[in-house]
């Protein structure tokens, strides 16, 4: 599985700022002169013509693209289901955690996304929750695997098709073709 983002935003405000900045730069074409650093950043975040069409090929290709992931996340925010991608990325990050920090990080993820009254609870069936809770007794890098697979499938089968029909995706696709 690829990792399009190396770090996850910590607060809602940081997420909003990140999405606003990336989304804005993706959908705006700048015609005025800017500094060389700004030009470099713009080139890195601007969509190339074929990028949105690659996202249409598969959900995996969408997640492997930093621009695609950003737009998908913005779409999920608009649908009030951003917790799904946040959980998925947290699990991806968790897999690279040092063994000495697994228990602490596992508890944080579990409390935020799965546990009773979790503030960003993801939609998991009772059995998956029970297995994940049991895995918490002896956290390993694979303890969220089943839950992550379920959320991936949910996003792939439900959110991803809606994203491809959304104004967010269609506008990005249109803008990429006219850049």
TrEMBL record:
Domain RGS: 58-169
Gene3D superfamilies with a match to the protein in the record: 1.10.196.10, Regulator of G-protein Signalling 4, domain 2
One Pfam family recorded for the sequence: RGS
Organism: Sparus aurata
Domain of life: Eukaryota
Protein name: Regulator of G protein signaling 5b
InterPro entries, A to Z: RGS, RGS_sf, RGS_subdom1/3, RGS_subdomain_2
């Amino acid at each position: 599985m690829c990792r399009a983002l190396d770090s996850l935003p910590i607060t809602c405000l940081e997420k909003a700022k990140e999405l606003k900045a990336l989304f804005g730069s993706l959908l705006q074409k700048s015609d005025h002169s800017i500094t060389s650093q700004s030009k470099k950043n713009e080139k890195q975040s601007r969509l190339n013509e074929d990028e949105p069409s690659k996202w249409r090929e598969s959900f995996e290709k969408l997640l492997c693209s930093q621009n695609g992931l950003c737009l998908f996340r913005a779409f999920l925010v608009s649908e009030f289901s951003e917790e799904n991608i946040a959980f998925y990325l947290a699990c991806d990050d968790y897999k690279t955690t040092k063994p000495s920090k697994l228990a602490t990080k596992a508890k944080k993820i579990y409390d935020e996304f799965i546990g009773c009254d979790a503030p960003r609870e993801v939609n998991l069936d009772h059995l998956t929750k029970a297995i994940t809770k049991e895995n918490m007794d002896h956290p390993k890098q694979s303890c969220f695997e089943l839950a992550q697979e379920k959320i991936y499938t949910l996003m792939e089968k439900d959110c991803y098709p809606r994203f491809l029909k959304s104004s967010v995706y269609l506008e990005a696709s249109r803008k990429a073709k006219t850049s």
